[in-house]
Every structure is written in C-alpha cells, then in structure tokens.
Amino acid sequence: MNELFFKINLNKYGDLKQKAESEKRVFQYTLIGYILVIVIMTGFVIGLNMDLKTKIDSRSKLLNEIRDKIETYEISGEFLTKQDLERMAVISRERIFWAKKLVALSEKTTDKIAITNFSFKGNNLSLYGITKVDKNQKEFDLIDNFITELKNNVHINADFPEITFVLSRLDYEKDVEILRFQIDLISESSKKER
Prior knowledge:
CATH architecture of the largest domain: 2-Layer Sandwich
Low-confidence stretches: none
Helix content: 55-70%
Number of strands: 4
CATH topology of the largest domain: Threonyl-tRNA Synthetase, Chain A, domain 2
Mean pLDDT: 82
Shape: rod-shaped
Strand content: 15-25%
Largest sheet: 4 strands, antiparallel
C-alpha cells in the first residue's frame, strides 16, 4: 500500500518575509556599493579635474608673464632677434680665455727665448721672438722644442690645435748675433675656413 504524505509549511509567511528581507539587504548592500564606487570615481575625476585646472592656470600665468616680458623687451629696444642669438652662440663657441693661455705661454718660454710681441688676427695668434745665436746649440732645435711644448700644453692646444713655424732671419743687435722667428698658432675655426 502506498502511503501518501503531504508536507505543510505552517511558517510560509515567515520564510517569505526572511527571503524578502535577505533580498532587500542584498539590494541595499549592492546599491550602497554602487553609490560608494560612483562617489569615489566622481571624487577622483573632480580631483583630477582640479589638478589639471591648476596646471592649466599656472601655465597660462607663465605664458602671460612671458608675453609681458617679450612686450617690454620689444618696447625697450632690448629685444633679441634670431640673428642676435646666433651671433651670441658663435661668440660663446669661439671665445678664447686669454689669461690661462698667457700664463701657459710664459711658463713654456725658456730663458733662451724671448717673445718680443704677438698679434691676433683672423683667429690666428702670431708669436714673434728672438734667440741668441750660440755656436754650441742649434737654434732651430730650440725653436722646435718650444713649438712641441706649446703643442703639449692643454690650455694652448685647446683653442690652437695647429702650431707652425713661419719664418726666421739672422740679425745683429749691439754686436750680438740673434735669430728672429715667427710662430703661428692656428685656431680650429681658421682650419675650418681653409
């Protein structure tokens, strides 16, 4: 014999209420989560926007200051053109600091050689000097050693990489036989022009 059983839930309303409350809590937590995410993202976007606005304002202020300075330079006549800047760049590239060069030149000049004068034309330095003619010493070796010393000095060689012997002649000064000579120190810019 088959027995038939029925299950009756007498607390059906309570289960439905619990289920509804559970679904309501899940909905509330989900809604609160979405709202929090939206608030956080909105705050992030607002913060990013304010940061960008601050940067844009500072750049605008800097640009206005630069424009004002340009206008004052144009009005005052102190405005620098492109050609002025190019000339200044050439001057700064080709300038020569003479103090160290003259000290180095004096250190390399021995007591057997005297520099009588020098001239600087066309970016070349010409040294004019004399040496006493001595029967026991070759004057050209003395001049050649002087040129080698100048070539090996970093202060001189930096701006004058090429040093050449130009000319010499024998002369008499108060019954003393002397050799007059000229040495040219050629700058890098002169070498490029050749």
